[in-house]
UniProtKB/TrEMBL annotation:
The keyword Translocase does not apply. Keywords: Plasmid, Toxin-antitoxin system. GO terms for molecular function: cis-regulatory region sequence-specific DNA binding; toxic substance binding. Belongs to the RelB/DinJ antitoxin family. It comes from Zophobihabitans entericus. GO terms for biological process: DNA-templated transcription; regulation of DNA-templated transcription; single-species biofilm formation. This is Type II toxin-antitoxin system RelB/DinJ family antitoxin.
Length: 103
């Protein structure tokens, strides 16, 4: 729930340009309802977002991605190999020599 916000109303933008993007209809409807409850239009919210991108020189929030099951398994295996002191090689030749040597 958002408090009513009239701060951004009536902002005059010089040299305005348009941004066109395609998004899922349900996402747009949900976002429009939430922003409306905050007293914001979609355009105002996007403008605020872009101002924050410029001000912070990046995304104004953390973006995290949950790894797939396959990636999670590979990461777990790599961590386990690292803990057991597995061999590391500086070159392919070194790896091949290690694999073909009689130990």
């Amino acid at each position: 729930m958002c408090a009513q916000n009239d701060f951004f109303r009536g902002i005059y933008i010089m040299n305005a340009t348009n941004i066109n993007t395609r998004i899922d209809a349900e996402l747009k409807a949900d976002a429009t309802n939430i922003l409306g409850a905050c007293g914001l239009t979609m355009s105002t919210a996007i403008r605020i977002f872009l101002e924050q991108v410029v001000q912070t020189q990046g995304l104004p929030f953390d973006v995290k991605r949950t790894p797939s099951a396959k990636t999670a398994r590979a990461l777990k295996e790599a961590n386990e190999l690292e803990k057991t002191g597995s061999h590391r090689f500086d070159s392919i030749n070194g790896m091949v020599e290690d694999m073909t040597s009689d130990k």
